[in-house]
Design brief:
This protein has helices at residues 3-14, 19-50, 55-62, 66-80. By secondary structure, it is mostly helical.
Length: 92
């Protein structure tokens, strides 16, 4: 998801004059925002791991557990279609 585009949609929704229209617009946007933030977080953790930073350091510096680092790297791989491990193809 395009974060700047999503920010523009959020700004537009938040500026709705009618409070009920504003509510509906923000409610409809909430799943996209949640997905985009999770994808960006997963990508950041995966990028840190790909740069060679050990997972315990990534976990400590990001304030999450090692298992959360592993989960986010896996989620990013699934989202981008990256291979799972050497010799194991990505699942379709």
């Amino acid at each position: 998801m395009d974060l700047p585009g999503l920010a523009a949609r959020l700004t537009t929704a938040a500026r709705q004059a009618d409070p009920l229209q504003r509510y509906r617009a923000l409610r409809d946007l909430a799943p996209d925002i949640k997905t985009a933030i999770a994808a960006a977080q997963d990508a950041a953790i995966a990028e840190a791991r790909a740069a060679g930073t050990p997972e315990d350091q990534v976990a400590e510096q990001s304030g999450v557990s090692v298992s959360e680092v592993r989960r986010r790297v896996t989620a990013h791989g699934k989202r981008t279609g990256a291979g799972r491990r050497p010799g194991r193809p990505a699942k379709p």
